[in-house]
């Protein structure tokens, strides 16, 4: 039987998803058409707003529903501006229109006969004066709805700090946030209105595709028309075959990097192979003596698993972008993209992570520290892809810290990010890993500073020696995020902070800002 992913033989299938209570089938749109543009321009659902068009402001926040391996409905917020429409195939799309009174979609099934009543999220926003100019409001409402549904499902209530974390990807220039946080608490006091999950599950079951999904659309280019393919295999075997057969195609995971190439740089990304439907790639499990994180695991799930074993890393988790970005973006994408200011690589390097690469039947592993060759260059060969990362469990026995330095506290790219790990034998440094992002063309370990610490007593004098060695390890650049001098000074200061937090006498607490709000959830 022909696989639908053999591009020569495949026929294009319509993009099918559940939207406002019915299954929608879309054809003829380009493969990189954003969900936001489709909503506003094609479906004329203009409740969802466009602010930045790059995943930063949250005005375009929508909620996606999909079935997990057990067939249960999972909801998560994403930024519609950087999601490509074909990635919706088989999923449910919820927008602010789904919450309006008497809507034809999900909420008609939620609250039969409830006339003109607003959804509790909306009612709370009204009561608490959570909206002024209103431009950001649909995005906030959808982030709040996502939180509302999650907590109603779990029978819990979020703390104010948890709500603040949930809303960290939504910007408002008017309200000052307090009224919105008030609304986030108030919505749980109002009579509950729940999504009819059974109806959505039934619809999504009907959208399942046994053999994966292939979609093609003509793309107008100056030199003429070209047919662009979007392939979405559902098994690892199908992905491996497709990747080997089409090494020139671009791998697409969460599109939180690629979406910006399209929207901001107008790059032609050509043929796409989407990884998001390959269940094997999403796995997070203990394999032997390592924590294995599949490349397609969402950043949110991957960080949760890491923080469960190293709670001191909670701050980096919560300050890595925002919930919508972490729901869409993947650990594999962060590692493969290889930005020198990516936040996962320094942490993973400090944890001695290995990266697993796959091409055909060949699987090879290497230390993540060896994967990056030069600025945005890595060891991937044509036809190869990142299959996962493996973190030895022994690495969690060290004292691990992740320090993210950025201009804005929430949802900002790092000027510098440090992953630091140390194990002491009595007073002596028995092992040490110092990995920094933002200090060189790639994320890399500070070999000379590590050498200055290893085998030495863990004292202020030793720290001073390692700080001096850091200046030999790195010659950072000045750019819009920080000057070279600032970067070096901060990198050195973070060593001091590591010492203050891990010294034998009178250690300071590891001051992870939001750690107490997330720990109860860090159980996956
Ligand atoms: C608003 C915003 C905030 C952000 N904040 C942060 C932040 O705080 N810290 C940070 O580090 N990053 C941040 N990012 C960047 C981005 O979220 C991450 O790099 C993300 O992990 C990319 O993953 P993705 O799945 O979205 O990758 P995609 O965008 O789908 O792909 C990125 C690249 O990786 C390749 N790729 C993806 N998966 C694989 C694979 N399995 N094998 C081989 N190649 C693959 C793609 O071909 C592409 O070249 C932010 C982005 C936005 C838009
Ligand atoms: S429009 Fe700003 S995040 Fe999408
Ligand atoms: S109410 Fe005006 S931007 Fe939020």
Using brief descriptors, characterize the structure shown.
524 residues; alpha+beta; Uridine Diphospho-n-acetylenolpyruvylglucosamine Reductase, domain 2; 3 domains; five-stranded mixed β-sheet; five-stranded antiparallel β-sheet; 19 helices; 20 strands; 32% helix; globular; binds flavin-adenine dinucleotide; Xanth_DH_ssu_bac; metal-binding
Descriptive overview:
With 524 residues, the protein is an alpha+beta fold. It starts with 14 loop residues before the first strand and ends in a 6-residue tail after the last helix. The protein has helices at residues 35-42, 106-110, 120-127, 137-154, 160-166, 178-186, 197-206, 236-245, 258-265, 299-309, 314-319, 323-328, 331-337, 344-350, 368-371, 447-453, 460-473, 484-502, 515-518, and strands at 15-19, 22-26, 61-67, 73-79, 92-94, 213-221, 224-232, 250-252, 272-274, 284-287, 290-294, 354-359, 362-367, 372-374, 377-378, 385-392, 399-405, 416-425, 428-437, 444-445. The protein is globular and about 70 Å long. Strands 2-1-5-3-4 form a 5-stranded mixed sheet. Helix 3 (120-127) crosses helix 6, helix 16 (447-453) packs antiparallel against helix 17 and helix 17 packs antiparallel against helix 18. A hairpin with a 2-residue loop joins strand 18 and strand 19. It has 19 helices and 20 strands. It has 3 domains: 107-195, [2Fe-2S]-binding domain (DNA polymerase, domain 1), CATH 1.10.150; 213-279, 2-Layer Sandwich (Uridine Diphospho-n-acetylenolpyruvylglucosamine Reductase, domain 2), CATH 3.30.43; 283-522, CO dehydrogenase flavoprotein, C-terminal domain (Enolase-like, domain 1).
């Amino acid at each position: 039987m022909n696989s639908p992913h053999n591009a020569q033989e495949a026929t294009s299938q319509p993009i099918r998803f559940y939207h406002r209570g019915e299954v929608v089938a879309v054809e003829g749109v380009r493969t990189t058409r954003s969900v936001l543009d489709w909503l506003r321009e094609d479906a004329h659902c203009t409740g969802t707003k466009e602010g930045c068009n790059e995943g930063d402001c949250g005005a375009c926040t929508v909620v996606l529903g999909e079935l997990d391996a057990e067939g249960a409905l999972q909801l998560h917020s994403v930024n519609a501006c950087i999601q490509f429409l074909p990635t919706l195939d088989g999923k449910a799309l919820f927008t602010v229109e789904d919450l309006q009174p008497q809507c034809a979609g999900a909420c008609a099934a939620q609250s039969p006969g409830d006339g003109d009543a607003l959804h509790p999220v909306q009612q709370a926003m009204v009561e608490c004066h959570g909206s002024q100019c209103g431009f950001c409001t649909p995005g906030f409402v959808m982030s709040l709805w996502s939180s509302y549904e999650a907590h109603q499902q779990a029978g819990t209530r979020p703390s104010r700090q948890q709500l603040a974390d949930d809303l960290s990807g939504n910007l408002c220039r008017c309200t000052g946030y307090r009224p919105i946080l008030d609304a986030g608490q108030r919505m749980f006091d109002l009579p509950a209105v729940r999504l009819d999950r059974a109806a959505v599950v039934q619809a999504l079951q009907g959208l399942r595709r046994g053999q994966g999904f292939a979609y093609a659309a003509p793309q107008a280019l100056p030199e003429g028309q070209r047919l662009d393919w979007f392939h979405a295999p559902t098994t690892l075997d199908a992905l491996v075959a497709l990747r080997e057969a089409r090494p020139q195609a671009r791998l697409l995971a969460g599109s939180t990097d690629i979406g910006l190439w399209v929207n901001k740089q107008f790059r032609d990304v050509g043929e796409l192979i989407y990884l998001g439907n390959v269940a094997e790639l999403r796995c997070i499990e203990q394999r032997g003596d390592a924590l294995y994180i599949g490349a397609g695991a969402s950043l949110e799930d991957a960080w949760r698993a890491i923080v469960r074993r190293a709670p001191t890393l909670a701050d980096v988790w919560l300050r890595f972008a925002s919930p919508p970005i972490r729901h869409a973006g993947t650990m594999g994408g962060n590692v493969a993209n290889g930005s020198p200011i990516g936040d996962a690589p320094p942490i993973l390097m400090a944890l001695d992570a290995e990266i697993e690469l796959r091409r055909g039947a060949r699987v090879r592993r290497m230390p993540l520290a060896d994967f990056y060759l030069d600025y945005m260059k890595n060891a991937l060969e044509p036809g190869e892809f990142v299959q996962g990362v493996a973190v030895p469990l022994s690495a969690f026995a060290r004292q691990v810290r992740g320090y993210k330095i950025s201009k804005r506290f929430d949802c900002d790219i790092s000027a510098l990010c440090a992953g630091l790990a140390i194990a002491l034998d009595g007073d002596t440094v028995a092992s040490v890993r110092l990995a920094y992002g933002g200090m060189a063309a790639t994320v890399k370990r500070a070999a000379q500073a590590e050498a200055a610490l290893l085998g030495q007593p863990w004292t202020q004098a030793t720290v001073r020696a390692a700080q001096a060695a850091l200046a030999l390890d790195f010659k950072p650049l000045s750019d819009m995020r920080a000057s070279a001098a600032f970067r070096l000074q901060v990198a050195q200061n973070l060593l001091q902070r590591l010492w203050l937090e891990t010294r034998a006498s009178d250690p300071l607490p590891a001051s992870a800002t939001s750690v107490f709000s997330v720990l109860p959830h860090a159980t996956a």
